[in-house]
Design brief:
This protein is 34% helix and 15% strand. With 211 residues, it is an alpha/beta fold. It has a domain at 2-28 and 102-210: Ribosomal Protein L4, Chain: A, CATH 3.40.1370.10. The protein has a six-stranded mixed beta sheet. A hairpin with a 5-residue loop joins strand 1 (2-6) and strand 2. Helix 2 (30-44) packs across helix 3 (103-119). The longest helix has 17 residues, at 103-119. 23% of the residues are buried.
Length: 211
C-alpha cells in the first residue's frame, strides 16, 4: 500500500511511502476494539476511592438506648450505617481496575482502528520535521497548512524526535503528539485525523511486522 507524502506546509511533495497492506487493510474486529479501549480506560482509573465504615467512624460504641422494653427495634451505637453521621455500609474501597489483554488482541485492536481511519481518509503522512524550540505559534501554522485547525489531531512521530513538537502542542486543546511505539487504540479512535511522519510510519510498520 502506498500513501502520498506532504510537507508541513500542506504541499504534495510528489513522494509516496510504501507500507505493508496489513497495516491499514486488516479485517477489523469491533469486539477487540471494545476490549482494548475498556482496558485503556480502566488503566487510567486511580482506584483510590474510599469511604469510612462503622469501625472507622469517630464516635462512641455505647448503646443509644436500652435494647428491650421500649416497644421498638433494638438500636446499636451512633456509628451504625442507619444513623446520621454513621459509617457507610458496603462503601467503596481502594482497588486496582486494570486487567490483562494478550498482545495479539491489542495488536488486532490497533490494526482494526487504523483500518477504520484509512477507510474514512483520516490519515496523512508528512515529511519528518522538528522544531528548534517549543513554539505554539509554529504548531498552529502547521495545523493551518494541513487544514486541521478545528479538528482533533494526533501527530505520530519517530521515538525521541517528538520533544519540541510535543511541547509546542501542549497548550492546544485538540492536538496530541506521541511516538510510534506508544500508539494505542484509544488515541487512534479519539482523534479525527492521524498525521504520521515518514519515519514514524516506517517504525509502526516494523513494529506491526515483528509483533
Amino acid at each position: 500500500m502506498e500513501l502520498k507524502v506532504y510537507n508541513i506546509k500542506g504541499e504534495d511533495t510528489g513522494k509516496t511511502i510504501a507500507v505493508s497492506d496489513s497495516l491499514f487493510q486488516t479485517e477489523p474486529n469491533d469486539h477487540v476494539i471494545w476490549l482494548n479501549v475498556k482496558q485503556y480506560l480502566a488503566d487510567q482509573r486511580q482506584g483510590t476511592h474510599k469511604s469510612k465504615e462503622r469501625s472507622e467512624v469517630s464516635g462512641s460504641t455505647r448503646k443509644l438506648k436500652r435494647q428491650k422494653g421500649t416497644g421498638g427495634a433494638r438500636s446499636g451505637d451512633i456509628n451504625s450505617p442507619i444513623m446520621v453521621g454513621g459509617g457507610r455500609a458496603f462503601g467503596p474501597r481502594p482497588r486496582d481496575y486494570s486487567f490483562k489483554l494478550n498482545k495479539k488482541v491489542k495488536r488486532l485492536a490497533r490494526l482494526s482502528a487504523l483500518y477504520y481511519k484509512a477507510q474514512d481518509n483520516e490519515i496523512k503522512v508528512v515529511e519528518d520535521f522538528s522544531f528548534e524550540a517549543p513554539k505554539t505559534k509554529q504548531m498552529i501554522q502547521v495545523l493551518d497548512a494541513l487544514q486541521l485547525k478545528d479538528k482533533k489531531s494526533l501527530f505520530i512521530l519517530q521515538p525521541n524526535k517528538e520533544n519540541f513538537v510535543s511541547l509546542s502542542a501542549r497548550n492546544l486543546k485538540k492536538v496530541r503528539v506521541m511516538s510510534a511505539n506508544t500508539l494505542n487504540t484509544y488515541e487512534i479512535l479519539h482523534a479525527n485525523t492521524l498525521i504520521f511522519s515518514e519515519s514514524a510510519l516506517k517504525e509502526l510498520d516494523k513494529i506491526n511486522a515483528n509483533s
